[in-house]
Design brief:
Helix content: 40-55%
CATH topology of the largest domain: Rossmann fold
Radius of gyration: 21 Å
Structural class: mainly alpha
Strand content: 5-15%
Shape: globular
Number of helices: 12
């Protein structure tokens, strides 16, 4: 058992097309992790319901995301690729865990405050209890590691608190997960092209480059990217736009930031932005081609989804039965 792989869990909402930020910060790294860990990669469709969705679009986005996972190089035989709503144990454990989560803990979640302010017309209970469902997602699979961005660190801390509280009350039941923090090289943080002090988001298409954007759209967005009033292509905390473009170019070409700076020494911003766009177009070309092939093969997609459902259901109910037994429910 000493050689048993650690378990890693991650989920992405099917709430729109993924950006190059999602690719460079997560998906590209997931491919490297699949040989190192026992990975559960989930399409967290239930989480997306906290914001009003168009049903047909949500269904299509879910298929799109599974196809993108595969197109990026995730092997569904090595990993467990599945849809959250296909595994009822997520909701079942979320209810049980909500009875071990304090109201004050849930109320302190900053994402609830931020999303409530952003969508004041739809402040629903799901938005409030969403971190408990996230805890269930992670704890069901006895995850050792969870890749998290800054916006999810607080939720992972809550997950750890819930797991520890339950373990202390009954007996060791859950693995208390640790955050997986990739190196800067493996988890580039990509900012918005129009507002380079804000993270690139798939809910804002203005300054976001989508993984499935056409070459023309990618070029247009980079040509319009915000830079600064200077003319030197140098990485600096005071040059947010240029630094972001250097990060993107470095990630897609595999060159170091220093090498990128030397390459564009004495060059203008216009030429630089075109070169960055070309590197992104070239880097996404094989992914887009593979995605186009996979998304047309509905039978293959359904087979991948069915296999993921079977594997995730088996793993999740091992944990859920253990929890139910400990809290006194008859199995």
């Amino acid at each position: 058992m000493e050689n048993q792989k650690k378990v890693l869990f991650s989920g992405i909402q099917p709430s729109g097309y993924l950006t190059i930020g999602n690719y460079l910060g997560a998906l590209k790294n997931f491919v490297k992790l699949q040989d190192q860990y026992d990975c559960f990669y989930c399409v967290v469709d239930l989480h997306s319901l906290t914001i009003s969705q168009v049903p047909a679009q949500l269904r299509q986005n879910t298929y799109n995301l599974i196809a993108l996972y595969l197109a990026c190089g995730l092997d569904y035989k090595k990993n467990t690729l599945f849809i959250q709503s296909h595994v009822p144990a997520h909701c079942e454990l979320a209810w049980a865990l909500s009875c071990y989560t304090m109201y004050g803990e849930a109320r302190r979640m900053t994402q609830f405050k931020e999303k409530s302010a952003k969508h004041p017309e739809n402040i629903n209970v799901g938005l409030f209890s969403y971190p408990v469902l996230m805890a269930a997602d992670i704890l069901l699979y006895q995850a050792d590691l969870v890749p998290v961005g800054d916006d999810q660190k607080q939720h992972l801390e809550l997950t750890r608190d819930i797991a520890t509280r339950f373990n202390n009350k009954y007996s060791p039941t859950f693995v208390v997960p640790e955050p997986y923090i990739p190196s800067k090289k493996d988890g580039a943080r990509i900012m918005d092209l129009q507002d380079p002090e804000k993270k690139m988001s798939k809910s804002d298409n203005g300054g976001a480059v989508m993984m499935l954007d056409s070459p023309d759209d990618i070029m247009r967005k980079f040509k319009r990217a915000v830079t600064d009033s200077g003319n030197e292509i140098k990485y600096s905390t005071s040059k947010h736009g240029i630094s972001n473009l250097l990060t993107i170019y470095s990630a897609f070409t595999g060159k170091s930031i220093l090498e990128c700076e030397k390459e564009f020494e004495g060059k203008g911003y216009g030429e630089f932005k075109i070169k960055v766009a070309e590197s992104v177009i070239e880097g996404l070309k094989p992914i887009q081609a593979e995605y186009a092939r996979i998304i047309k093969d509905k039978q293959f997609l359904e087979e991948v989804i069915a296999e993921g459902k079977q594997k995730a259901t088996y793993a999740s109910y091992k944990t859920l039965r253990k929890v139910y037994r400990k809290i006194g429910l008859i199995l």
